[in-house]
Write a structure and sequence with these properties.
Structural class of chain A: mainly beta
Distance between the termini of chain B: 41 Å
Order of helices and strands of chain A: HEEEEEEEEEEEEEEEEEEEEEEEEEE
Number of strands of chain A: 26
Helix content of chain A: under 10%
Radius of gyration of chain A: 38 Å
Largest sheet of chain B: 5 strands, antiparallel
Distance between the termini of chain A: 125 Å
Number of helices of chain B: 2
Radius of gyration of chain B: 18 Å
Oligomer: heterodimer
Largest interface: A-B, 67 and 73 residues
Number of helices of chain A: 1
């Protein structure tokens, strides 16, 4: 028994005979390799050659060939495609979270999709209404994307491929400003899931086994909604002035009403309008509406205010949380 | 020219028949399976697999034996990497490798790979296409030995 340590040296640098045999062997080998790994069902063959001279000139021999069948590896990852929490409002329907499901295995595989919205770690549970499979454009459109029905159209795709999945949810009306609601999307290989190394005999692509990979053949990731709500508080006050320079509400006295709208919260209020009926036994003082100290006309025109004979109206539009609007108008006591 | 003719004949002839009574080269492939025992210790087991999955670590073992009546001089063993296996290391056996399909040979540390921009970068284990051991002294009659390298299923 002896071991001769082979040492690289100039003596045997060029050995064309071996190259010929070696290249022939290389050409016969499967040539598939991508990020997800060698395709399931392919064969890895290994043969070595030796050349030597035992006195009769150079001789080349082949070793025995070892063939290994590549089994199907079951691996999947799910990634949330929303870089940040998705804003929502209390009671909103059709709120969309986007996920990407990737087949990290080395064979075609179908995956079952489920959602988990009650795992905790958040402030409320979004109510999942539907799951849609993207048609390839990456944008949610219920008329062109496919509504997912578990067991009926489980997405099946090639190694290294991804599908975009949209999860639609309703935000409960009870959710408050600043609340977070988490939904996880889970994808599980239809062939089976389990601990890494578990195998399903004969169920792999190409006739081999299907072997659970490092992901456990299931994956999940979480996306979150963030409730961005706003509340409006109106405070109305009145000041009476009269010709006697007292605060008595005598006929002919003027009442100046002040309405302060305060918007609170992280969101904003759209289409906010202040409407106030002119009280009985008083008369509106024409041209007396002000917004933020500026006078508005009574006509329904380009400015935000108007008076229609029975009430004043001031359209404030969109007001963000933390802001106030002050509206005043005057009446006289009949 | 004479040498060239000999080499061509050698390549065309069925090797084992010619060399059955001279030098034998025996090829085994094992997979390293890591198991964790009850105490959390990792054990590496070598199994002879029929099937593998991407990511499996393979150990290729080549046993040679000079069964002939003469010492075998200029003994060279060449193993092309299977395309689906990424070379990892060859233990302490210090082989020559090729990173260009067998055209040029050298120690991995001495080889480089052309880049798209015309420059060259140092060769990495993953670039290896062929492995070769060239013995500087003849294998004596009855001499045996073992060569090995590791690879990972792509």
């Amino acid at each position: 028994m002896m071991m001769i340590a082979p040492v690289g040296g100039a003596k045997h640098r060029l050995l064309p005979s071996c190259s010929i045999v070696a290249l022939l062997a290389a050409l016969a080998l499967p040539m598939q390799a991508d990020a997800a790994g060698t395709r399931a069902g392919s064969t890895i063959s290994n043969t070595a050659t030796a050349s030597f001279d035992a006195g009769g000139g150079a001789t080349t021999i082949d070793s025995n060939r070892v063939d290994l069948l590549v089994d199907e590896l079951l691996d999947v990852t799910v990634d949330s495609s929303n870089p940040a929490d998705v804003p929502t409002t209390p009671g909103a329907t059709g709120q969309v979270l986007t996920f990407s499901v990737t087949n990290n295995g080395n064979g075609v595989e179908a995956f079952a999709l489920t959602t988990i919205a009650n795992a905790g770690g958040d402030d409320y549970d979004p109510a999942v209404t539907q799951i849609y499979l993207d048609n390839g454009d990456g944008l949610f459109d219920s008329s062109t994307d496919a509504l997912y029905t578990p067991g009926a159209n489980d997405p099946s795709f090639d190694p290294d491929e991804s599908v975009t999945v949209f999860v639609l949810a309703t935000t409960p009306g009870s959710a408050a400003d600043g609340n977070r609601g988490i939904i996880s999307l889970a994808a599980a290989a239809k062939t089976g899931t389990g601990d890494p190394g578990d195998s399903f005999a004969g169920q792999g692509e190409g006739g081999g086994d299907a072997v659970v990979g490092s992901t456990g053949a299931d994956g999940q990731d979480a996306g979150a909604f963030l409730v961005s709500a706003a509340t409006v508080t109106l405070v109305k006050s009145a000041v009476v002035t009269n010709s006697l320079s007292t605060a008595d509400p005598i006929p002919g006295a003027t009442i100046t009403y002040t309405i302060v709208a305060t918007v609170a919260g992280s969101g904003s209020v759209n289409g906010l309008a202040i409407t106030d009926d002119i009280p009985a036994d008083t008369s509106y003082v024409p041209g007396s509406i002000t917004l933020g100290g500026s006078v508005l006309s009574d006509a329904a025109d380009a400015d935000a205010g108007n008076y229609n004979g029975t009430r004043i109206n001031v359209a404030l539009g969109t007001v963000a949380g933390g802001q106030t609007r002050t509206v005043t108008f005057r009446t006289t006591i009949d | 020219m004479r040498t060239g003719l000999f080499l061509l004949l050698a390549a065309l002839m069925p090797g084992p028949a010619l060399a059955a009574n001279q030098v034998a080269l025996d090829n085994h492939v094992f997979v390293e399976r890591v198991s964790t025992d009850a105490e959390g210790k990792q054990r590496i087991l070598l199994e002879e697999p029929k099937v593998v999955v991407p990511g499996d670590r393979l150990v290729f073992v080549l046993n040679y034996r000079n069964a002939g009546a003469q010492p075998a001089d200029k003994f060279v063993v060449t193993n092309p990497m299977p395309a689906a296996v990424r070379f990892a290391d060859a233990g302490d056996t210090r082989p020559f490798v090729s990173v260009d399909g067998g055209k040029q040979w050298g120690l991995l540390a001495d080889l480089s790979v052309p880049m798209a921009d015309g420059t060259r970068r140092a060769a990495q284990p993953a670039d290896v296409t062929h492995i070769r051991w060239a013995f500087q002294t003849p294998i004596p009659v009855g001499g045996t030995g073992k060569l090995m390298f590791r690879g990972v299923v792509k």
